[in-house]
Amino acid sequence: MNSTSRASAAPWTPDAIADQQGRTALITGGNSGIGLETARVLARHGARLILAGRSQNKLDEAAAGLRGEQPDAKITTAVIDLGDLASLQQASKRLAETETIDLLFNNAGVMNIPERRTTSDGFELTFGTNHLGHFALTAGLMPALLRSPAARIVTVSAIAATWRMGRLEDLMSDRRYGAMSAYAKSKRANVVFTQELARRLTGTSIEALVVHPGSAMTNLQRHSQGPLSQLIVALTSRTVMGSAEGAAWPSLYAATSLDAHSGQFIAPAGRDQTAGSPKPVPLPRGADDPAEGAFLWTESERLTGIHFLSDPTALR
Ligand SMILES: NC(=O)c1ccc[n+]([C@@H]2O[C@H](COP(=O)([O-])OP(=O)(O)OC[C@H]3O[C@@H](n4cnc5c(N)ncnc54)[C@H](OP(=O)(O)O)[C@@H]3O)[C@@H](O)[C@H]2O)c1
To answer: Residue 258 maps to which CATH number?
Structure first.
């Protein structure tokens, strides 16, 4: 299998990534931060990229930057707003009809939105973008993923998935809104979604993995505007926060390593899981409970009105 790296005892770095010529990767949030770094490394290894984001201008700028570094990079763009189901479904339908997608990175996200806001469809913005948007996109792209002989879906969660405030209840934060609890819920949902997806994809050619990138100074922190939030960002950016480059390693490892497997939670192996070479880490407590997976799945289908294939093997 030439699409993945060989097992090795040495700490993993992106140098271990095998040639990705002939493979296509779609990256949400591909114009910024960790998504852009993921794209950069995959382009270097020959993958064809579909950069997805909500702004054509930002996507064009990111694509031009990558082509400047790598003139032979194969890049197309797709405007996909995870906070707008109608436009998302339109875009994913077009891609599903024409593309073979080998790697799907459910990477885009928002964090720390100071006041409760909603997506175009009325979902709480953080949960709606980070989980429901990716739930809908993954469902829509399933035909394109099933065309690949060996596809991987990599969903980018966060250490916040392990926080108690991330319990999957009051998903729309109707009863009580907290910026970081909405984020923690969305990030736990990324993990629980992946566990349920991995179970449902058993017997197909698609694997589903979830990662957390450690921490890196990116545009994600732009809503951290209160004095306390700003102080925390200022302090941590100088101490524990790494680069977007290193924060992309767990995604890259999950997508390309032969040692990585469906259902795994991949994170930096360094101290406090903030940085370092990626490795599988224990799941947040209870995140592989099929009852929680079934609850999230049912709620996600009810809220979005989008249903996954009941039998993905039927399309093969
Ligand atoms: N940085 C960290 O320390 C850290 C830690 C843990 C987890 N993560 C996770 O890593 C992922 C990437 O974050 P990042 O740090 O790279 O942040 P970032 O630089 O802000 O990138 C986030 C990306 O998501 C896109 N996005 C936001 N809302 C969207 C929507 N409605 N539709 C489509 N795209 C949308 C953004 O687009 P625009 O450019 O248009 O805003 C941007 O491209 C997120 O899932 C985040 O939760 C990051």
So the answer is: 3.40.50.720
Helix (H, G, I), strand (E, B) or coil at 160: helix
The SS3 of residue 89 is helix
- pLDDT per residue as tens digits for the range 76-123: 999 999 999 999 999 999 999 999 999 999 999 999 999 999 999 999
Which residue range is the domain that position 192 belongs to? 20-214+244-303
267 lines ligand 1 (CB under 6 A): no
Q: At 67, list the tokens.
A: 């082509």
Task: State whether the beta carbon of 101 lies less than 6 angstroms from ligand 1.
Answer: no
Are 179 and 113 in contact by the 8 Å Cβ rule? The answer is yes
| Inside any domain, residue 309 | no
Q: Is 201 in the pocket of ligand 1 (CB under 6 A)?
A: no
Query: Rounded to whole angstroms, how far apart are CA atoms 135 and 221?
Result: 24
Average pLDDT over residues 221-243: 62
- DSSP symbol at 131: I
Q: Is the CB of 5 under 6 A from ligand 1?
A: no
Q: How many domains does the chain have?
A: 1
Residue 79 lies in a domain: yes
Distance, CA 311 to ligand 1 centroid (Å)? Answer: 31
49 lies in some domain: yes
Ligand 1 center–CA 208 separation, angstroms: 20
Residue 120 placed within a domain: yes
Cα 8 to ligand 1 centre (Å): 31
> Other C-beta atoms within 10 Å of 127: how many?
24
